[in-house]
Inverse folding.
């Protein structure tokens, strides 16, 4: 019974809940990206026990780039090491390769870089559409990386 449940596919609802949980991690990573770039560009202000970073132009764009890189790395590394992010672990789903094993670092990185395309144009429309058109609820990243998300 457990082996059957482990290979049971996972739809958009559980994946969406996991993503909502992971968004708290993304929010923290946004602060890391902003404060790292602000510190490197001399735009980090510390006064009266508070820290402020006001980035505009190229430094602001750099902070977004750092944040996206950190978010992709968060997903790719956790999915490579354990098959799941914090959000996926809490809703009891995980990413697996076609043979049921944890994905390789290359597959994990590929599926998560394509997450940027799945978000287009807004609110994950491309990802949801490709999941709806797939028999295994696989988004573009899953198709490229030969992975799927299953219940555990």
């Amino acid at each position: 019974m457990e082996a059957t449940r482990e290979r049971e596919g996972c739809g958009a609802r559980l994946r969406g809940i996991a993503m909502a949980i992971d968004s708290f991690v993304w929010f923290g990573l946004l602060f890391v990206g902003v404060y790292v770039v602000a510190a490197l560009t001399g735009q980090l202000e510390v006064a009266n026990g508070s820290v402020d970073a006001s980035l505009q132009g190229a430094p602001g764009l750099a902070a977004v780039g750092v944040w996206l890189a950190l978010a992709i790395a968060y997903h790719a590394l956790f999915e490579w090491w354990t098959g799941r992010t914090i959000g996926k672990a809490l809703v009891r789903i995980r990413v697996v390769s076609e043979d049921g094993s944890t994905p390789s670092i290359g597959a994990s990185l590929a599926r998560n870089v394509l997450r940027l395309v799945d978000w287009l144009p807004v609110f994950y429309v491309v990802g949801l559409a490709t999941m709806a058109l797939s028999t295994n609820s696989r988004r573009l990243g899953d198709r490229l990386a030969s992975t799927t998300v299953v219940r555990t």
Notes: The chain has eight helices and four strands. The two ends are 11 Å apart (CA to CA). The helical segments are 2-6, 12-41, 58-81, 86-91, 105-113, 115-118, 125-132, 140-145.
